[in-house]
Amino acid sequence: MRLSLLSLLVLPFLAAASSGDQMVLSHPQDGPGEPFVPVTYSGKPSLADLLTIESSASIFYSYAREVELSKLFDDKSARTTLLVPTNKAVIALPRKPHEGSAPVREGVILSEAEFDDLSKKNVERWVSAHIIPESPISLAAPGEFKTLLDGKNVTFTLLEGGDQDAPEWTRVVLDGSVRLAAMKEASNGVMYVLDGTVLLD
Question: Would you state the pLDDT for residue 108?
Fold first, then answer.
C-alpha cells in the first residue's frame, strides 16, 4: 500500500524530468568540425589498458601517470617494452622512486615547490629506466637494451638448465638477478612484470 502510494507521488516528477529540456545531438554533417570516426577494436588492449587492470603493478602505474612518459602507454604508433615492477618490489626499495637514489644533503632546506620539482624529476628518471623504446625484443639475444633514461641500459641473461620448451621470458633474468614474473602483449608493445626493479645506480 505504501509502495503504491509512494510511486503515485514520485511518478509525476519522473515524467516531468524526462520530458524537460533535453539536449539534441546534431549529426556530424550538420556543421563544421571533425567527422565522426567510430572506435575500432584492434583485438589487443593497449599498454595503458594492461596497466589499469594489473593490480600487482598499481604502484608503478601510479608513479608513471605523474609524468608525460605515460602518454606512450596509449600511443597506438609506439612500440614499447615495459619493465613493470610489482607492488611488492617497489615497497621493498630502501628509497622510494620520488625520493631519488640519494638523500638531499643535510642542512639543505627545500621549498615545497623545489621539493615537488625534485620529486617529479626523480619519478621521471625511475619510470624512464623501466621503458625500452622498442618492441618486440629478443630477451635471449646477447647485448644491452637502451632505456629511455640516458645512459641506462639493461641486459637479459639466459638461466642455466631452464626448460627449453618454456616461453623465452621465463628463462631469463634482468640485470643478472631480477626474475620476470609475467608477460602480457598489448597492441602497442609488451609488458613484463618484474619481481624487482631496474636499479638506477
Answer: 64
Q: Are 113 and 143 in contact, with CB atoms under 8 Å apart?
A: no
For 145, the 3-state DSSP assignment is strand
3-state SS, residue 21: coil
Beta strand segments in 48-136, E: 80-85, 131-132
Q: Is the pLDDT of residue 131 over 90?
A: yes
53-63, pLDDT tens digit by residue?
A: 999 999 999 99
- Concatenating the DSSP letter of every residue in 29-48 gives GGSSSPPP------SS--HH
| Distance from C-alpha of 150 to C-alpha of 121, rounded to nearest angstrom | 13
- Nearest partner of 88 among 47, 127, 58, judged by Cα: 58
pTM here is 0.74
Backbone angles phi, psi at 182, to 5 degrees: -160, 160
65-86 pLDDT, tens digit each: 999 988 989 999 999 999 999 9
What are the backbone angles phi and psi of residue 92, rounded to the nearest 5°? -75, -10
For residues 167 and 139, what is the distance between their CA atoms, to the nearest angstrom?
11
Q: In which residue are the cell numbers 628463462 written?
A: 171
